[in-house]
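Fresh eyes needed here. Kindly weigh in on this sequence plus structure tokens:
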Amino acid sequence: MLEHDLRAETARLLADLIRIDTTNPPGNETPAAEHLAAYLAEAGVGATLRGRVPERANLVARLRGAGDGPSLMLLGHTDVVLADRSEWSVEPFSGLERDGHIWGRGALDMKGQVAAEAVAFATLAREGWSGAGDLIYCAVADEEVGDGWGLPWLTEHHPDLVRADYVVNEGGGERITNGDRVAYLVGIGEKQCSAFAVTTHGKSGHASTPGASDNALLKMIPVLERIDRMVPPARDLPELRAFLAAIGADGDPQGVMNAARNTNPLLAATIEPMLGATIAPTGMTASSKINVIPGRAQLRVDCRILPGMTQAEVEAAVRGALAGLDYEFEFIEHDGGTMSPPDTPLYAAIEEFVPQIEPGASAAPVICSGFTDSHWMREAFGSIAYGFMPTTMDPQLAGTLVHSADERILLDDLDLAVRCFVHLARAMGEAA
């Protein structure tokens, strides 16, 4: 099949998927899974649909390998976040093709990759897959909310259906520059979400007589001040050094980040999560009535730590910063925090493809600030999982469109992604 046919095929499939409203909650991903199953059936591939409930199906399809080579999964999710129509210049579930883009909720996150992976998978099926290992296509529900309807449910209840040695998922592929050096990001891991809460106590009372009470909210003032001033736990991450080498940045990582703050904000924003833990107060609860002084106040703090770091390190740092204050501390989140090494055949295949995107460009490993479904595969099966879908769209523009209005993806990037996934599958199909 000609490349321009694959481009049109991917654009049509993506537009169809966008028109299926899978806003989560409630999700209702089954129509998307059924549409993908029908598309794969046209290429002669049967698909399996599994879900905790009928309306939230996950899809898995498999091309059996000819030998005992490693298996490769092309992974994506079909649910999307809410779209407020009043903020959009087009209908958010239109799948409109305009100005060289496909527009609509999920175009970037991540129905574009779901469609490109499906077309790559179908292309290899039509050719007659002869790789040494299995090639798996998996489109799951419920990544955006993560209430256990998607990949974690599959890994627990249908492990043989989704077990894979290698995984390509979302979480990388953006273009980044440093002077005349160009690199494309490869997500090799995700930070662990380790949000915590700090609670202060006092004595409630009527707000008209504050002297008779002990305002727990006021006790949060020094807590906030000290958390704002504290230095979070840090780690000299070898993968960060590898990233800096790939983009030709010499020197101390903190210094490189500080120097890039004004001249290259994207570079600074990429480095910051890899320096160590990030700690950011994001919410507080106290009295629900304006005339009641709170006897209890709770501060919620977003905290993300590098793979290999522990919550004990964070707690020790926070308690050190809050020494002498009266408070309670507890973690309220513990999700993710996994990483795959970059010295693997799949990473090498990505490195081999990157110059096809842009001559002279290199691959650069990064740790994502949040987490993706990749961590379920690493935890369940020890899979090597990377986030990679090459994109030439301005990453700063793309960053403003994900989960926002007028989300759209370049048609050229859909074509590029299909070629990339076919390349990676073939390379891994030849791996011993």
In short: The mean pLDDT is 96. The domain at 3-171+372-429 is CATH 3.40.630.10 (Aminopeptidase). The longest helix spans residues 107-127. The chain has two domains: 3-171+372-429, 192-235+276-335.
